[in-house]
Structures are given as C-alpha cells and as structure tokens.
C-alpha cells in the first residue's frame, strides 16, 4: 500500500513537470502542423504517388492527416484546401453542372485504378460494362475563371470508406467557392422520388420513371370526382399567401381510400407528376431507433424539402397504438409544417383511428375510390377501344362496350384491366398460319367469365362466418357526407359511396 502511494505521487510529479515544460514551449513558439522529414537527402517522397504507395505499404495511423500534411509539404508555395464532404464529386458536377467545367488528368501524378465489372440494374438492359474505379489520382480542373490541381485518394479505414480531395490553389477563397458549388449541386438529386424504408431515405430513379408514365388522361374516374381532386391539390400549392393572410398553417392532408385496384395509385402518380415539387414516399416507419425515430426523420426531411408531397402508403398499417401519439404530434404539433401536402392511402378506412379519420387539420379531405359504376366500366372499355383502334387483328365494335359494362358488375379497374390484358395475350399467342382467326369479343367475354368465377370463389373462401346485413347510414358516413350503397355487405366490408358517383 505504501509503495503504491509513493508511485502515484511520483507519477503526478512527472506529469506536472511535463505539462509545465510543454506549456513553456507553446508560449514561446507555435508547433508547425507538418510532419518532419526523415534524415537523408533521398528519404522524402518526391511526388504524391510515392506518398500514397509508401504510406499504404507500411504501418500507419491517421491517414487523412498524413496525406494532408505531406501534400502540403510538396506544394509549399500553394494553399491546400482539403475536403472529405460526401457531396463533393467533381465528375458528377461536371456531368450535370450548367456552367463550364473542364477536367484533365495530371501528367506528373500517377494514378492507381481498378478495373471493375458493372452489372446492369435490370437483365434486359444488357450484359453490363467494364469501368475504372480510381483509388488515387490527380486532375487539373478549370472552373469559371479559376484553375486548380486536385489530388484524390480513397481508402478503407475501420468500418468505412474514406474519400479525401486536396485542392491545390493560390486562392483558398476560390477553392471554397468551388467546393460550395460542387457540393450544392451534388447534394440535390434530380429526377428521383425519395423513398423511406428500413429507417433510411434513398433516391429511387425507377419509381420516378414510373411516375412520369402516368397521366390524368389515362385515369378513368367520374368527371366531377377527378375535377374536385385536381382542384384540391392545385389550389393548395397556389394559395400560400391566402393561408398566411388567414393566419392558418399552409398545410393540407388528404386520404385516398377504397378497395384495391380502383385508381388510387395511378391517381397518386398523376398528381406527383404534375406538381413541380419534391415527392417523398413512405413505406414503413420502422428504423433502428424504433418507429418514433423513423417518424421524426420522415417529417424532418419533409420540412427540409417543403413545399413537397409526402405520401404514406397503407396508412392503416403504418399507424399503430404505439406510434399514434407521436405521429399526431408531428402532423399538427408545434413544428412548422408549412408547404406540406400529406397524402395517406388505405384499403381499410374503417380500421383508422378516429383521430385520423374524422378530424380536419390532420387529414382534411377523404377521397373514396369505389368499384366503378356501369358508366365508368363502359368508359374504361372505350379507353381500350381507342388504344386498340390501329390494331388490324382486333375488331372492337361499339356494341361490345355496353356488353362488357353489363357483364363486369362489381369489377374493379384492376380486374377489368386483367380481362383486356389476358385477352391480348391469347390473341398474341395465336399462330397467324392457322385458318381460324381469333375473335376478340369471344375471348374477352370468356376472360370476364373466368375472372368472375375467380372473384366469386375467392369471396366465398374469405367471407366471414357472420350473417350479412343491410347497411344504413352510420355516424362516420354522415360526417363524411357519404351514403352507404344500398347493397348487402358483410360487417367488415362497408363501402362509402361519394354522393355524385352513381352505382
């Protein structure tokens, strides 16, 4: 015990003496932030390539600091501005920047490159290609009226990949301006829909391309219904000043509800295509920090992108007893949600909590997409008739429009689409050398018959073992201004009918 006490006293005495000496040195002279070259005339590397290779061929630590100090020593008459910002990428900037940007490889800097095979995202896009990945390299860059030398290096460190750019310049201010312009451009993803799933946001180019194919011309809905929906979101994005003058938050919430296959998705895509604002699409609240962190990250991104469209898919599944309170607080709590158009979709409106389904300011309007009426079914067939007009193999008389509408009662748009698609597949598989020509009408009505049988078989299997009942108007339907269709429905499958849509 006595020995430990003596040793501890000696250690503190030595530490105090060392700190005093170090303080004295720092008061008299600032230590230079450069590495000391080893002794000998040939010991110092002669170019950035040797620095990189020598360093990675030996034991090392602090690679980022080592490279920065060594490159600084190589260019004593220039300033070195270093960045490892994840959004700084001179090649992506050069590919999409509106201003002139010229890049060429430096002759006096050797490059280290890897040849890699890049597999296509889809098999039908080809067999892939060979490309080069740069591990270490140098480029001369001309941007606006400035020229820079840039030394690039990337390496694995711990559990991450580090990328560092060293801008060699006579004007640090110009280098900072270049970093700002490049990172600002590269941090903005164009032509994507942002998707949140598994706790992360990711840019989805394929979904954006799918959205671009959508058009309101291809959406077969009641004219008044379509006009009302379009007017709702169009007027919202034009009415910021009106909201401000009225002293109310500039935000709006819509719910698209109804059985699957009746136009919610195509209408949503047509809306996303038309509005000139970012689109954010949420598939799940789950994240490594739980639903609360997921919800917080979702709304934080939406506020940063506003004005924008925030889509919540299958709202009835997203909102649970555990996350409801936190979600509601994000929607209409103290946070500023100006410019946010929130759209939730659900096939099961009856499962939504009243705090979501019946209170404006969270979701202000509900748009029901019911099974199409007879007139809508005829309009849908007419749409196909126009589309197939130039096909010489198909005879599509006007009489078939009414016949198709009569035989597709209770069909959703998805079922009707399948009838036409399967008919066209049958005709496409027909051998032209055969004498009998396929009859479009006969095949189409056969497909309708098969789909009817399939639908009824599925309904009989999934029907609950409770007696059906004649529905009456409920408080929810009266509140929404809807009436229940005068048909027999099971207790868990009530259909809300918009007043201006006839069955």
UniProtKB/TrEMBL annotation:
Belongs to the AAA ATPase family. Residues 250-373 form the AAA+ ATPase domain. Pfam families: AAA. Residues 1-20 form the signal peptide. The keyword Cell cycle does not apply. The keyword Hydrolase does not apply. One of its GO terms (molecular function) is ATP binding. GO terms for biological process: ribosome biogenesis. InterPro entries: AAA+_ATPase, AAA_ATPase_domain, ATPase_AAA_core, ATPase_AAA_CS, P-loop_NTPase. Keywords: ATP-binding, Nucleotide-binding, Signal. The lineage of its organism: Eukaryota, Fungi, Dikarya, Basidiomycota, Agaricomycotina. One of its GO terms (cellular component) is nucleus. This is AAA+ ATPase domain-containing protein.
């Amino acid at each position: 015990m006595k020995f430990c006490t003596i040793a501890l006293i000696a250690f503190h005495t030595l530490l105090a003496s060392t700190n005093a000496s170090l303080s004295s040195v720092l008061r008299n002279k600032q230590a230079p932030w450069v590495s000391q070259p080893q002794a000998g005339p040939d010991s110092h590397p002669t170019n950035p390539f040797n620095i990189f290779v020598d360093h990675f061929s030996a034991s090392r630590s602090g690679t980022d600091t080592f490279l920065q100090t060594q490159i600084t020593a190589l260019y004593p008459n220039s300033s070195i501005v270093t960045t490892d910002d994840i959004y700084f990428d001179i090649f992506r900037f050069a590919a999409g920047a509106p201003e002139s940007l010229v890049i060429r490889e430096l002759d006096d800097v050797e490059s280290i490159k890897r040849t890699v095979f890049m597999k296509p995202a889809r098999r039908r896009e080809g067999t892939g290609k060979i490309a080069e990945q740069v591990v270490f390299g140098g480029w001369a860059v001309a941007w606006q009226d400035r020229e820079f030398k840039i030394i690039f290096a990337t390496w694995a460190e711990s559990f991450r990949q580090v990328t560092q750019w060293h801008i060699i310049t006579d004007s640090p201010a110009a280098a900072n301006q270049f970093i700002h312009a490049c990172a600002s451009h590269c941090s903005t993803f164009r032509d994507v829909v942002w998707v949140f799933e598994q706790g992360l946001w990711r840019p989805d180019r394929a979904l954006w391309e799918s959205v671009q194919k959508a058009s309101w011309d291809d959406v077969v809905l009641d004219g008044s219904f379509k006009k009302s929906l379009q007017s709702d979101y169009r007027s919202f994005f034009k009415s910021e000043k009106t909201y401000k003058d009225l002293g109310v938050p500039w935000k709006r919430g819509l719910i698209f509800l109804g059985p699957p296959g009746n136009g919610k998705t195509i209408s949503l895509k047509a809306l996303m295509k038309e509005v000139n604002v970012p689109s954010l699409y949420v598939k799940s609240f789950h994240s490594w920090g739980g639903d609360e962190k997921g919800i917080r990250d979702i709304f934080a991104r939406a506020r940063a992108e506003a004005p924008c469209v925030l889509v919540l898919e299958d709202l009835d599944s997203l909102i649970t007893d555990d996350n409801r309170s936190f979600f509601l607080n994000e929607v209409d709590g103290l946070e500023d949600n100006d410019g946010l158009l929130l759209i939730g979709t659900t096939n099961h409106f009856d499962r939504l909590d009243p705090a979501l389904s019946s209170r404006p300011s969270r979701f202000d309007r509900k748009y029901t997409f019911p099974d199409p009426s007879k007139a809508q079914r005829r309009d849908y067939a007419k749409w196909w008739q126009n589309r197939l007009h130039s096909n010489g193999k198909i005879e599509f008389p006007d009489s078939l429009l009414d016949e198709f509408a009569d035989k597709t009662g209770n069909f959703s748009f998805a079922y009707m689409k399948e009838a036409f698609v399967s008919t066209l597949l049958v005709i496409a598989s027909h051998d032209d050398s055969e004498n009998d020509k396929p009859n479009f009408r006969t095949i189409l009505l056969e497909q309708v018959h098969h789909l009817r049988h399939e639908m009824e078989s599925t309904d009989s299997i999934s029907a609950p073992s409770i007696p059906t009942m004649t529905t009456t108007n409920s408080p929810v339907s009266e509140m929404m201004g809807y009436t229940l269709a005068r048909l027999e429905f099971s207790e868990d499958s009530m259909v809300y009918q918009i007043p201006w849509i006839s069955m």
